[in-house]
Amino acid sequence: MNIKDQLVKIEKLFNIVLISFTIAMFVIVIFNVFMRFVLNNSIGWADELSRFIFIWISFLGAVLAYKSDEHVGLSFVVDKIKSQAVRKTLFFIQRLAVLIVLLIMTYYGYIVTVSARNVSPALSITLSTVYMIVPFSAFLMCLLAIGKIAALFTGKDNNAAEDSEVTL
Fold it and tell me: How far apart are CA 164 and CA 160, in angstroms?
């Protein structure tokens, strides 16, 4: 099995995890609303768990969005540039800047995660369990960023094509 097939399987797994988390959050919130307003007896841990799941959904979704280049970008300056070499250089600078930010996010996210000793009040779990998604997702995006930079040099980057949109 080649790397491309493995990446497709990983992306499918990510989608399944995101869908599962979204469904779980939906069920927890709906159940808690029912308990609070119909039975007048709220579940204490439901708000906290749904908040933590939402954090994980956000960061895992950011990985998928970065993989597909679906993050919001401003391209009006780069669109005015006619030179393909200049556009490719700007693309490289943009991707390198993103990689640097992601490396910083991975490093400091790891430090915060391993040093977190506080416990959530309702679920009684250490918050490092919640925080670990930051370095994990940032690391995955680092790998994607390295792949995007490599694709620029191998000519396999579809976004660096002359007629396509370049985001900064």
Answer: 7
Determine contact, residues 159/91, Cβ cutoff 8 Å: yes
The one-letter code for the residue type at 33 is: V
Report pLDDT for 78: 78
Cβ neighbours, 10 Å, residue 96: 13
Q: Give the H/E segment covering residue 49.
A: helix 44-67
Helix axes 133-154, 84-115, angle to 10 degrees: 160
Distance (Å) of CA 160 to CA 78, 112, 141, 152: 11, 36, 19, 7
Specify which residues 119 forms β-bridges with: 126
Structure tokens at 47: 């708000």
Q: Provide the Cα torsion 127, 52, 99, 80; round to 10°.
A: -150
Find the radius of gyration of the CA atoms of the chain. 20
Within 68-157, where are the H helices? 76-79, 84-115, 128-131, 133-154
Q: What is the mean pLDDT of each run of 10 residues along the chain (168 residues)?
A: 81 93 96 92 91 96 91 77 86 94 97 94 93 96 93 74 42
Write the burial class of residue 82 (CB in 10 Å: 0-12 exposed, 13-18 middle, 19+ buried).
exposed
